[in-house]
Automatic annotation (TrEMBL):
Transmembrane segments: none annotated. Residues 1-57 form the HTH lysR-type domain. CDD domains: PBP2_LTTR_substrate (cd05466). This is Transcriptional regulator. It comes from the Bacteria. The keyword ATP-binding does not apply. The keyword DNA-binding applies. GO terms for molecular function: DNA binding; DNA-binding transcription factor activity. Pfam families: HTH_1, LysR_substrate.
Amino acid sequence: MTTLRQLRVFVAVVDTGGFAAAGDALGTSQSSVSHTLAALESQVGAALVHRSPVAATAHGARLLPYARATLAAADAFDAATPARTPTTGTIRLAVTPTAGHHLVPELLTLWHAHAPGIRVRLLEGDDVEVAEWLATGAADAAVLVDAPAGTGPVVARDEFRAVTRTDHPLAGTGPVPLVDLVEDPLLVSTAGCEPQVQELHRRAGLPYRPAQRVRELTTLMAMVDAGLGVTLMPSLAGPMLPAGLAMTPLTDTLRRVLTLGAPTTRPRHPLVERILDLTAGHLPPDRPVGPAPA
């Protein structure tokens, strides 16, 4: 019979990318991790993890969401039992890089001040990954972009802005139409924001022809800083910009609402209920639209 320990080992090996790292995360030895995973694979009759490099097999990828959901439910059950202290434990929070940079320090400070027994483990990914982790149980809560009304408390509002070098002719000139940037090569990130950039071009009646598509925001900013083009980013990313870059508002922009959300298809972890209440009670419902443009 499959045990929760076996599932924890399976998930930890995939998440940490190694047997030794999984052992460290679980407080056990690499040998114990290896034997436990082998026993689980024997029970299911298939390999779940490739050994070199460490990654889920096709069978493992198919079973991984069920393992995550089972563990999330078990952890929530354990936290909800009368024998447990309801304000002590660990929750997993999924965030995007821009939310993580600007919002997470504020949220963690708030939660620690009012519920110091709650520990938060961060998972950082793009918009699609964050939503998937919340749905599958990899995360107990998440900062979601444009979630349905009622999902949870609003933690920020922001908008898309042009990012250029500070010596660009349009830098710091005030709101500019997107058409004024068409002579510059367009650089875009595939890590969650590309659909909004495409929509901005559709609204402006402009063809969407990115010169380069990269995943990492640091790479994107370095390319703009090198004079290889311009980009469009959420205003929450403003504090991440190096000194040589500036944000300029757009005359016709897209605005986002960022919400602290919890699962809707399974019971919430009791500690998630606590941070939702804290957030709703201490953060104003009408959050500012990101930092002021440079």
